[in-house]
Amino acid sequence: MYKILIVEDDGVISKSLKDHLCKWGFEAVEILDFHQVINEFVAADPQLVLMDISLPFFNGYHWCSEIRKISKVPIIFISSTSDNMNIVMAMNMGGDDFIAKPFDLSVVVAKIQALLRRTYSFQGQMNLLEHKGAILNLGDASITYENQKVELSKNELKTLHILLENKGKAVSRDILMKGLWDSDCFVDDNTLTVNITRLRKKLDEAGLTDFIATKKGIGYLIGD
């Protein structure tokens, strides 16, 4: 089931969209706090966003730009300000489509279905994991913190994924090695140490100092 995040401050329109999308088998989530759109986006981890332009506090262009810093999730703008300048602005800010208000709900669903097919037919759904302001994007192998985006290697991504899924708990070196090199081939224990050292250096450069702690005699830990 695809999850759609609705960023629309008109309660009537938002509920109408949610109810209709649910009838079509989607899971629809409405933004509740327009101060915290990014936090709610990360918590929802949607496969598509419906974004109004005129919103409280910050407009839809701002939030589209913020989402684009951490995710390539499809974004469809919905707005009554449908002049050419706003449509061009929406596309330039990272939007994938534009629907003018008032709209026909069946047209909204058709556009959502088409965009989801184009986006996810040949790739897995993107997932985001957030911890203390750091956002791990499994879709593009990156971690973002305070507007700094760091590209990760395959092993660095796997390491952070395992540690974040077990945050608050120490993960043994054996479990990490099995997750990284799940084969019958012998892997030198020192190889894991080298990988962790390189990953910590990248995290330090992004401002995530001491993000990964060492539990002596056990393994590694990302604290709660």
UniProtKB/TrEMBL annotation:
Residues 3-116 form the Response regulatory domain. Residues 126-224 bind DNA. InterPro entries: CheY-like_superfamily, OmpR/PhoB-type_DNA-bd, Sig_transdc_resp-reg_C-effctor, Sig_transdc_resp-reg_receiver, WalR-like, WH-like_DNA-bd_sf. It comes from the Bacteria. SMART domains: REC, Trans_reg_C. The modification 4-aspartylphosphate is found at D52. Keywords: DNA-binding, Phosphoprotein, Transcription, Transcription regulation. One of its GO terms (molecular function) is phosphorelay response regulator activity. GO terms for biological process: regulation of DNA-templated transcription. Residues 126-224 form the OmpR/PhoB-type domain. The keyword Transmembrane helix does not apply. One of its GO terms (cellular component) is protein-DNA complex. May play the central regulatory role in sporulation. It may be an element of the effector pathway responsible for the activation of sporulation genes in response to nutritional stress. Spo0A may act in concert with spo0H (a sigma factor) to control the expression of some genes that are critical to the sporulation process. This is Stage 0 sporulation protein A homolog.
